[in-house]
Design brief:
The protein is an alpha+beta fold. Helix content is about 40%, strand content about 15%. The chain is built from 10 helices and 11 strands. β3 and β4 form a beta hairpin. α6 runs antiparallel to α7. The radius of gyration is 30 Å and the shape is elongated. The chain starts with 14 loop residues before the first helix and ends in an 8-residue tail after the last strand.
Length: about 375
């Protein structure tokens, strides 16, 4: 997760902001010098209004007012050097410069107020999102866990992708999913699934019962739906409105058995990294996403795969495999992983995150979540 946003400062607090302050002062000095040395019929004083106007675009009202005052003082120096303060032309230039400085200072005040308000809203949103999408533990029994969340929107901390972990009496349960939709609707669906998982994951003995509770969580905030004419998986109901559903992968990893049990609800299959190889864990039966059980009914099939000491499981959302490069080619996740198949979870995700952003040109088209899980040798895991 990203660091907590800081309130915006009224003055440029970074080196780049300080360097920008050189521009208006250099402009004032250049215009003043050239104006004083110019012939009597040439007047460059009006160019001084650019100094406070430029300052207002990146600095606060006090700095803008200060630059405006410097510009007025420079215009006064020009008037005295060339004619006098009572010269009508210079008087009008000074008055106009004062008025424009006052106006741009006011707009700088409005911009700073809005930026500070936005900073407070970001802080509140980040706090709320941190409650919804809690960090995963680094250790859970014999498991070493690492996670990464990459938001498509630069200012966002969380979207519709989700993950969670819960300890049971015999092992660890993991959830990763993707709520279809955008904005607050997607976050709302994600929070419902996460809430249902956290309440019931450590209570239910079997994964099918847990999946039932997750289904109820998705449907708890929805009105009754009719079957869509366009078929399942389109995410659009018969009336043209968006239909809420969540693709999910639920895993149960026992502490004392070298296996992983999972139920796949329309989610990309996990990848098993074993001795330099990348093995997709495809389930024999596909189950519809959570929230579509009233449209498509299917029994909950639990698949079991070997998961021994040294193995690493990679869980991901479709924002990873749907990232595109300049040629519009999808990100080849399994192919890329072969180079890092022997890395531990934090190193693996660090390299994968950097490679994914580089492949997509620094901007992802969709949110992406990644969770890497390694089974440690006995005695290395936490309680």
């Amino acid at each position: 997760m990203d660091a907590r946003p800081r309130p915006l400062a009224p003055f440029p607090s970074r080196r780049g902001g300080r360097l920008l302050l050189v521009v208006p002062f250099a402009l004032v000095a250049a215009v003043t010098t050239v104006d004083v040395l110019s012939p009597p019929e040439v007047h460059l004083g009006p160019f001084l209004v650019a100094a406070p106007a430029v300052t207002a675009s990146f600095a606060g009202p006090r700095m803008t007012a200060f630059v405006g005052a410097v510009a007025v003082l420079a215009q006064t120096v020009v008037a005295v050097a060339r004619t006098s303060l009572t010269d009508l032309n210079h008087t009008y230039q000074i008055v106009a410069l004062v008025l424009i400085s006052v106006i741009v200072t006011f707009f700088a005040h409005l911009r700073e107020r809005d930026e500070n308000r936005l900073a407070r809203l970001r802080t509140i949103a980040h706090a709320a999102q941190s409650v919804v999408l809690r960090p995963l533990p680094h250790r859970a029994g014999p498991l070493h866990i690492a996670s990464v969340y990459l938001a498509a929107e630069e200012e966002a901390q969380m979207g519709g992708d989700l993950y969670a972990a819960a300890r049971t009496a015999s092992g660890t349960r993991l959830l990763i999913g993707d709520a279809r939709g955008k904005g607050l609707d997607a976050i709302g669906e994600a929070s419902l699934v996460l809430g249902a998982f956290r309440v019931t994951a450590h209570r239910e003995h079997e994964l099918p019962e847990l999946i039932g509770h997750l289904e109820e969580g998705v449907g708890s905030a929805e009105e009754p739906r009719s079957a869509p004419d366009s078929g399942p998986g389109t995410g659009e109901a018969a009336d043209g409105t968006d239909e809420a559903f969540v693709t999910a992968l639920v895993l149960d990893i026992p502490d004392r058995e070298p296996v992983v049990r999972l139920v796949n609800c329309g989610h990309p299959p996990p990848l098993l990294l074993r001795q330099g190889r990348v093995i997709p864990l495809d389930t024999a039966e596909a189950r519809p996403p959570l929230g579509l059980s009233d449209v498509l009914t299917a029994d909950v099939a639990v698949a079991t795969f070997p998961f021994d000491v040294g193995d690493v499981l990679l869980l991901y959302t479709d924002g990873v495999v749907e990232a595109r490069d300049d040629s519009r080619a999808f990100y080849p996740l399994a192919e890329r992983l072969t180079a890092w198949a022997r890395d531990d979870p934090p190193t693996l995700l660090d390299r994968l995150r950097a490679d994914l952003r580089s492949y997509a040109g620094g901007h992802l088209g969709d949110d992406a979540a990644l969770v890497a899980v390694e089974r440690l040798a006995p005695g290395r895991g936490g309680p």
